[in-house]
Amino acid sequence: MAALSSSSPSAAVRSWRTAFLTLRDETLTSPRLATGGGATSTSSSSIPQLLQHLIFSNSHSFISAAPELPPHEVTSDLLFLLELVATRCHVEQDMTATFSYTSHLIRDVWRRVSFEINSSSWTLILDSFAKMLDYLFNKLTPIATADSSANAATISPVMDCLELIRCLISIQVNKFSPAENAQLVKFLLRVIVGSHATLISSSYSITNQIRSAEMGKRGPKYSSLWEFQTVAFAMLADTVSRAGSSIPADVWKSIIEVFRKVMDFLASKSLPVENNIMSRFYSSLLHCLHLVLMDPKCSLADHVAGFVAALKMFFTYGVSSRMQFRYPDAGHQEKKLHITSESSLEEPKRVDCSPYKPPHLRRKDTLNMKQKKSWNPQSSSDCESSTVEFTSSDSDYSDSDGLVQDSETVRNSKVRVAAIVCIQDLCQADSKSFTTQWTLLLPSSDVLKPRKFEANLMTCLLYDPYLKVRITSASALAVILDGPSSIFLQVAEYKGSSKFGSFTALSSSLGQILMQLHTGILYLIQRETHSRLLASLFKILMLLLSSTPYSRMPGELLPTVIVCLQTRISEGFSSKSDQSGLLVAAISCLTAALSTSPSLQVREMLLKEISAGLLETDENSGVLFTLVQYSKELTSPNICFETLQALKAVAHNYPNIMFACWEQVSTIVYNLLAVATPEVPARPWKGHSGDTAGYIGEKLITAAVKVLDDSLRALSGFKGTEDLLDDKVTPFTYDCIRMKKVSSAPSYELDSMEIMNSEDKACQSGIEQWCEAIEKHMPLILWHPSPMVRGASVTCFAGITSSVFFSLVKEKQDFIFSTLINASVCDEVTSVRSAACRAIGVISSFPQVSQSAEILDKFIRAVEINTRDSLVSVRITASWALANICDSIGHCDADFPSQDLCADSPSITILTECALRLTKDGDKIKSNAVRALGNLARFVNYTCLSGACDKPVDQAGLSVKTRNNEVFTSRNDMKGIHGSASNSFHPPSMRISSWLERMVQAFISCVTTGNVKMVVDYGGRNLCSLGTSREGYINSSAMRGVWFWHLRAPSVFSILLLLLRDSSNFKIRIQAAAALAVPASIHDYGKSFPDVIQGLEHIIENLDSDQISAPSGFKYRIVLEKQLTSTMLHVLALASSTDHEPLKDFLVKKASFLEEWLKMLCSSLGETNTHSDFENKSLGAQKIEMISEAIRSLIEIYKGRKHDSLVQKLEKLDNSIQ
User: Fold this and answer.
1) What's the pLDDT score for residue 922?
2) Which of 559, 675, 774, 877 is the S-S candidate for 837 at Cβ 3.0 to 4.6 Å?
3) What is the per-residue pLDDT for 1182?
4) pLDDT of 1016
5) What are phi and psi of 1176, to 5 degrees?
């Protein structure tokens, strides 16, 4: 061997080649050697002995000769050696040393030669090492109780094999194909499972390791297998982070299953082991799990509970044995939530007697060993290292932690951080399954009394000594409360803190959790000083405010939140750099608290503040005072903007408060607008400081205008509600009337009684404020250079009420009219025109406006122009205004029934043509168009021509009069713009017939392509009225219209019956049933009457068999049943007039069902509701009349059919309800 070492390089090369050629010859020509059978007849040496003689004894010379050989030759020879050694894994000989020598030789050669590895060779390498590691794992198990020297001799080759794979990966990392990455993952999973099985079968339990660590020893003899798994999981993490997107789904599922097996094993042990080796293993394991859970490619529903149970054990890892807390004294703990009381809880203090050292000295003290790499998902550990070391950055040793931290403390804290991050990943990956684990991870009682074995995310946030753990806990809580959980929490209900029995309802559990979260978060907000953590706390509180149903929580909870925030805002924040950002976050939370459902307790708190005069004094002790003060902070636009948002929330949710706040609001808005006058061009602000002139941007000005808008709406009594059922209300559906709440309207629920008792005062106040706004504020914003500001200013007019508007002097009314018309037609910005159309839609619904042909003429012109705009948003608001105008015209006709609206008038022509054109637009526009057509069809006499109508017609075609019987005429400019609409080449009668046909066709088309509910509601109900003849207009034109209706009516009724029977949407079915009740006579139903009555009977008879898929279906099912009852009674009352014999036969056939159904209705007449006695009597009388008419109609039919027994039964039933 000495001679070989001193020989020339060429001799070493020859020795390499001779040795490997001899090895090939010996193994290939000796089958027993090749298969591991032992010595041949020519040689008594086994494979290990042969390798020792030919290869390992000359390893030093071979290593030096390798660079002189071609790389492909070196690669081929070493792969042959590796494959040969791997094939010996099944023999009884001890191959441990051979594996170690082989690994060392390949590793040393790899350092000097670049291997040429292709796909097939990579497969061979992984397969060979897998066999070798399986052999070594199996060899470890039988010697579990043997001496440690034998065990160490087996552990060392295990680590050598894995380190060699790690080195080979480093040279191929950028060359792997997706298939090779999948092979690598399968290999790592195989060796992890093998080593895990060895650890489980070991006679050394995890408690032995704890005892060994406490005695200051290295640990049990199998601790190196934990180090092996540490490296294996680190390699798996590198592979997943690098090539996770290319890993197949089946391999990904295997990864999840392996992690579940390992985590279940850890969860089966009482506590995780706290020593250096195990903390490194936990960190590597949890970091890899984090990467896997970030983008899972398979369902985690079956694994969430298991992962959560294991991860929760690490919440206090390294804390209980090394850190001491002084928890809040139980004597200071309050039973209820009184966060602002003076007897507040003491903050946990950390015990440390060491002298103070600055962070850079602490780092030098703890990192005096070799430099280690920090934990980074993208970094790979040194392939020479046998363990994975994780260290911290300077921030881990910051003063804010208040401890002299050593490397072990940092590692333990990183385990806690990693576990919480995995909890966050689980929530993001499968939020639905994760909600079942809330009771394990969130507190349900005594959040400020932590117990050692009841750790949860809030205890980590409150009491963990490590800042990053607290920040990570806050982040995890924010993720849990975000997303679908906000809907999930709506069922929460707080029922007190008393002990529950063996079963606690979900709503009660969620209520307890929300209460404890509020308690803990508010506690920290009052005391925390770290800016980053404070920002996270405000984010959590914001999510709590948006998710908590405060109406089912303790009444004092929301006021407590508001007072806590106001106190913290007033106190300010110690961090100068983040003070502005934290103030913005705190005020945003205050805005969210004021924006939640109005609270009676909050209202009383604000009224008490006003009555005490705190708003006018300089005492910094009230919510309103704080908002007024910070809204004047023009040097801090972000703070000013958020404060204006809070004031807007007060005006919206607590409108009665604005009577006392108007002076301050008006002053704030005016001062802000005066600074940003058009003479000083405004520009978007980005947090400027210093002089306020010239930088007040459009966003801030717009916020101020919106505060003005909401304040005026509150003072005017704007409610924005409408009766959804309108004139479809019958005695049976009266109880189902529900009011539609418009989001832009203030909330008057708490003030309803006061508003009713002081409407005159509110109206008078609204007039004064509107006059002030028009004179003082509007000139500064209506012609502002910013479109956003102009749009917000025009929107203000959409909140004015009819009573206030017509109490203004004529000059101000004309100012509003001209402003809206000019903005809708002349403004170049679409958003401003859209806002103007919305305001036109509101004002056109005022009764007095609809009586002015001149104003309606201008409104129609402006709206029609905007219905042709290229932007959908403009066409939506324009179509909405168009439908409102049509509805207003109809109500005007209802107020003056003797003045029928003629279809050939220019204005009706424009409205009809415009609405028909819009039925071919998008869904929302189509819905408004159908609503417009429905209103026109209901109120305009499409069977009448102006020549046949003996009444005065103005130039706009609207023969409506004012209260003084003065006829208004419109301007002639309408003819210039829309002359084509009125000067058609076709005769009026032909054009009207065309309209009727197009209306029905539009209805049929929209049912299949648009908003079915809206189409059926307005189109079906109102188009059915087309067939209803109007008294006094039976002429040739009328006959043509009626003829066309009867020609197309079967199609309309067939669609309505189909929707009523088959639609899965109960609202659509309700509207279809209401539409079927519109025709007033059999003549109006035409040939469809038998189909209608038979279809209704079939639906009512089979109503109980309907499947209800959603919980809301139960509520609408009741409404549908009542509407069907009303419609069926209506058509039965008309049935006696029919001469359709098959229909009479059908009614005789269904006599038994109809009798029972009528008996059921009669028996329900005695039921009372929440209405007054007068209303109950009136409704009862109307119900009796409808039932009696239906019974008498059936009696007449049965008499004609000679069914005397049926006649007697029905007569007796009719007499019983009289």
Assistant:
1) 84
2) 877
3) 85
4) 55
5) -60, -45
CB of 1038 closer than 8 Å to CB of 1088: no
Pairing of strands 940-941, 721-723: unpaired
* Residues facing 325 on adjacent strands: 350
Asked if 540 and 521 touch (Cβ cutoff 8 Å), the reply is: yes
pLDDT for residue 1068:
81
pLDDT of residue 718: 81
Cβ neighbours, 10 Å, residue 1: 9
Q: CA–CA separation, 1117 vs 1104, rounded Å?
A: 10
Residues 752/753/758/764 CA torsion (nearest 10 deg): 0
Q: What is the pLDDT of residues 263-275, one digit of tens each?
A: 999 888 777 888 8
Which DSSP letter does residue 776 get?
Answer: I
User: Beta strand pairing status for 739-741 and 901-902?
Assistant: unpaired
* Full 3-state SS string of 218-247: CCCCCHHHHHHHHHHHHHHHHHHHHHHHHC
Closest CA to 1048 of 1094, 1001, 1005: 1001
Residue 360 CB neighbour total at 10 angstroms: 9
Q: Is 952 exposed, middle or buried (0-12, 13-18, 19+ CB in 10 A)?
A: exposed
Cβ(939)–Cβ(895) below 8 Å: no
Highest mean pLDDT among 224-233, 446-455, 739-748, 977-986: 224-233
DSSP states along 729-767 = --TTTGGG--EEEPTTS---TTTHHHHHHTHHHHHHHHH
Between the alpha carbon of residue 468 and those of residues 361, 881, 947, the distances in Å are 20, 55, 85
In three-state secondary structure terms, 967 is strand
Region 343-369: mean pLDDT is 44
**Which pLDDT score, from 0 to 100, does residue 340 have?**
41
β-pair partners for 940: 901
SS3 941: strand
Half-sphere exposure of residue 342: CA atoms within 13 angstroms, side-chain side: 0
At 153 the pLDDT is: 66
pLDDT tens-digit series, residues 611-628: 877 666 555 578 999 999
Return the top range by mean pLDDT from 88-97, 443-452, 596-605, 1044-1053: 596-605
Q: End-to-end alpha-carbon separation of the chain, Å?
A: 125
Tell me how far apart the alpha carbons of residues 1058 and 1075 are, in angstroms, rounded to a whole number.
13
CA angle, residues 675, 679, 685, in degrees to nearest 5: 55
Cα–Cα distance for residue pair 227/220, rounded to 1 Å: 12
For the entire predicted model, the pTM comes to 0.76
Q: Which pair of tokens denotes residue 673?
A: 């607008």
